[in-house]
Design brief:
This protein is α+β, with helices and mostly antiparallel strands. The chain has 2 domains: about 1-210 and about 320-405, 3-Layer(aba) Sandwich (Aminopeptidase); about 210-320, Alpha-Beta Plaits (2-Layer Sandwich). The protein has helices at about 1-10, 30-45, 140-160, 185-190, 235-245, 285-305, 325, 330-345, 360-365, 390-405; strands spanning about 50, 60, 75-80, 90-95, 105, 110-115, 130, 165-170, 195-200, 205, 210-220, 260-270, 275-285, 310-320, 350, 370-375, 375, 385. The strands form 4 sheets. The chain has an 8-stranded mixed sheet with strand order 1-2-8-3-9-16-10-15, with helices on one face. A 4-stranded antiparallel sheet has the order 4-7-18-17. Strand 5 and strand 6 (about 110-115) form a beta hairpin. The two termini are about 25 Å apart.
């Protein structure tokens, strides 16, 4: 299974950072560059029905090799990476036979990946880990998923004696900015159900996710010379601080876990005259998400009453919903994923996704699509890493899933 590592290291060399402010699809040209490279690889492997459209959606088929009636399974991963930390010029390092101690990522900047800060590292003693030099993210979210899917499909191609039904694969753009399925053609994909290979640690299996909304706020201030500003200046940055202070201070990502929702100030840019803020709002309970949105509306209304109409301009946009209600009627997709993991020697960890995946939106559109682990940790940041063993296990789980459905 060394091919999965080789592929992964190749894919992370492509800068595919997605950018929310972009109006193009995909949002950045690097995603299309990677898509074309993947298209070429799939052609060389011998897959069929390969298509890459202008929006960067790449699909392909591994045809069934048996006449038995087997459902068509889809496997998906996304090509883009988060813009939270740079995804360009990634310098990877493989830590062989990890000894359980600190990993020095960058001597110059004194960046250390330590089990004191990240205790889950101790689960990987004796394994090989892939990290960066600490100046960028790694991109396991979700280039590990791409590498794992392609490696599993290649294995099936090389072993035609393994019976399987039709398998569809797809690689999508712009998942990190919640636009990964905007132009996804469900009819063209034509799968009975699917799995995103986009989870984190070994064993993760997820079919619940946040209900999600985005709040964009523009605060209009009034500038004046600071020497003569009394009763004239309205500093929009100070108003931004006041607004944020009215939100529940412990309902933020750094204070919540499990099924707890949050308000997350993701971006802020300001001067005296104008400040813009962007929050993401999350909750597993739909009614609680609505309450959070109403909280934002009331704060905006209060501040407009206090400082004048139009001081606060609030825009709320729903992004995605909890997929659980769409998965439960076809719960076999979860039960068989558990069986596949157990057959691969992996303990299933069924947990809610404290975020979203392409699968959440696809499920709500009619394609049930739960999420399976890739093996990565600390996504979106400079301390991201992935276990080689976990990547190989992800490939094995995909193959076991195919086997289980071919035997049913």
């Amino acid at each position: 299974m060394h091919k999965v590592v080789e592929r992964f290291l190749k894919y992370v060399s492509f800068d595919t950072t997605s950018i929310e402010e972009s109006k193009t699809v995909p949002s950045t040209p690097g995603q299309l560059v990677l898509a074309r490279e993947l298209e070429k690889e799939l052609e060389e492997m011998g897959l069929e029905d390969i298509s890459l459209d202008g929006n960067g959606y790449l699909m392909a088929t591994l045809p069934a090799n048996t006449d038995k009636s087997i459902p068509t399974i889809g496997f998906l991963a996304h090509m883009d990476t988060s813009d939270g930390v740079s995804g360009a010029n990634i310098k990877t390092s493989i830590v062989k036979n990890y000894d359980g101690g600190d990993i020095l990522l960058n001597k110059q900047q004194n960046l250390v990946l330590s089990p004191k800060e990240f205790p889950e590292l101790t689960a990987y003693i004796g394994q090989d880990l892939i990290t960066t030099d600490g100046t960028t993210l790694l991109g396991a979210d979700d280039k590990a998923g791409i590498a794992e899917i392609i490696t599993a499909v290649e294995h099936l191609l090389k072993h035609p004696e393994i019976p399987h039904g039709t398998i569809r694969i797809a690689f999508t753009p712009d998942e990190e900015i919640a636009r990964g399925t905007d132009y996804f053609d469900l009819k063209k994909f034509n799968a009975d159900f699917a799995y995103t290979i986009d989870g984190g640690q070994l064993g993760e299996l997820e079919y619940e996710n946040f209900n999600a909304a985005k709040a964009t706020i523009v605060i209009n201030g009034k500038n004046a010379h600071p020497g003569t500003a009394k009763d004239k200046m309205i500093n929009s940055m100070l108003l931004a601080m006041e607004l944020n202070a009215m939100l529940p201070q412990h309902e933020t990502p750094g204070h919540t876990e499990g099924y707890e929702g949050f308000f997350h100030l993701e971006k802020i840019l300001g001067r005296v005259e104008m400040t813009s803020m962007m929050y993401i709002i999350r909750d597993f309970d739909k009614s609680k998400l609505e309450a959070r949105k109403e909280c934002m509306r009331k704060i905006a209304g209060y501040m407009n009453d206090k400082y004048g109409k139009g001081t606060i301009v609030l825009e709320l946009v729903d992004q995605y919903s909890n997929m659980r209600e769409k998965i439960e009627p076809v719960i076999h997709v979860i039960e068989n994923a558990k069986k596949a993991m157990e057959a691969a020697g992996v303990t299933p960890i069924v947990k809610p996704i404290r975020g979203g995946t392409d699968g959440a939106r696809l499920s709500l559109k009619g394609l049930p699509t739960p999420n399976i682990f890739t093996g990565g940790h600390n996504y979106h940041g400079r301390y991201e890493y992935i276990s080689v063993n976990s990547m190989n296990k992800a490939v094995e789980v995909i193959l076991k899933l195919v086997e289980i459905y071919s035997l049913n």
